Amino acid sequence: MDRLSDIGTIKSILSRHGFSFSKALGQNFLVNPNVCPEMARLSGAGEGVGVIEIGPGIGVLTAELAKLADKVVSIELDKRLLPVLDETLAGFDNVTIVNGDVMEVDLRKLIEEEFEELDVVVCANLPYYITSPVIMKLLEERLPIRSITVMVQKEAAQRITAPLGTRAAGAVTASVSYYAEAKTLFKVSAGSFMPPPKVDSAVIRLDIRPQPPVSVSDEALMFSVIRASFAQRRKTILNSLSNSLHLGKGDVSAALEKAGVSPTARAEQLTLGEFAAVANALHENNGK
After folding, report:
1. Mean pLDDT: which of 28-32, 85-89, 226-230 is highest?
2. Do residues 63 and 94 lie in contact, with contact meaning Cβ atoms separated by under 8 Å?
3. Long-range Cβ contacts of 188-192 (<8 Å, 24+ apart)
4. How far is it, in rounded angstroms, from Cα 280 to Cα 272?
5. Residue-range domains of the chain with CATH
6. pTM for the predicted model, two decimal places
């Protein structure tokens, strides 16, 4: 179906199906005709590629992905949108809609069953309220995917793509950088959506690393160190780790010294290598 970015067309389709927007599901549909084609192009969708889309809405991005990729599987939580998608995507025979919660879907099984020999990428306009959980699920499950291209709130994009060791960095910055290289592709104004959200958005891409850039003895411990460090980011790393991990300052101080990290440093000053070194030191000291 043409003109899926046209406000009049969208209103007509939604009215015909008795659909109303859900604030709880963070539903904001794209009406800027330039955004989805560019997003699909930059996602890596193409010949020999399968795409997992999360939250297709009325299918604006889905249609653009289907024009480029061999196959698109879109996961939609809202059952009310299924008949809408049946109508808007009727012209594509390479699109499959899965009704479900992406946080509960077995994505590894889905990839095995739906994409066979295809390379796989993820592309989605994510609701703001589940941005970090979805991204971390995709990364932590170490799925056989090449990249993740998502539209997120502008502030979230800035945080995720910030260089480690800068004030803009946060726990999600360090966690994402362990699995992928993140970069901002382009910004999207609030007026590009219906209804318009209160903030602007940005499209980012995470290119999955073949191997993590640092070596750690205990990944779970490293992520605990990262979260603990940023939980009280105004405190020194010594106090943050001691308070959040319930460790004696002597033990934390010894680990920081072994890792070559100043006890007066703040979380935002540390590199991923330094977080890994602290985690390794804590692991070694705990094992003695």
Report:
1. 226-230
2. no
3. 188/32, 188/35, 188/151, 189/32, 191/32, 192/30, 192/31, 192/32, 192/35
4. 12
5. 7-208 (3.40.50.150), 219-287 (1.10.8.100)
6. 0.90
Residue 76 corresponds to which tokens in the numbers above? Answer: 């939609």
Mean of the per-residue pLDDT values of the chain: 91
Distance, CA of 257 to CA of 123 (rounded, Å): 42
Contacts 24+ apart (CB under 8 A), 195-199: 195/21, 195/28, 196/28, 197/28, 197/128, 197/153, 199/153, 199/154, 199/155
Strand partners, 18: none
How deeply is 52 buried, as exposed, middle or buried, from its count of CB atoms within 10 A (0-12, 13-18, 19+)? buried
Beta strands in 55-146 (DSSP E): 71-76, 95-99, 119-125
